[in-house]
Amino acid sequence: MPEIHRIGAHITWIEEPDLIVLRLSGDVSVEDAEAINVRHFALIEDRAHIFMLVDMAGLRTDTPAGRKLTSEALTRMPLHGLAISHAHLEARVMAKMVITGSELFKTEDSGKFPVKFFDDEPAARAWIAERRQALA
Q: What is the pLDDT of residue 107?
């Protein structure tokens, strides 16, 4: 069982060998976004690549500053795929702003990672497994 980290109302953990899972719940403050990023970088230390699964079922709101912090962090992670599940319309818009924002912070060393939305977690996990297999 992975070690679960609580940040505000949100939880995150890593599933070996290379998957960060983040479940957002309620509002995401700037402090939450910063703490999530710090935790994720600690979890992925020394990893060549990772995948990320974000469950947005419980997300209510976030802030422009928090989205900026998340966008910057995504460009510095060795992401090979980002799967987003349970994103209602407003959450999809927020996620797309973060993803679009990450394009602004890319450097020559930043990798481009695919992003896909799913209605449920099993479909998101299946896509990650396919990506993992294709990259093996």
A: 63
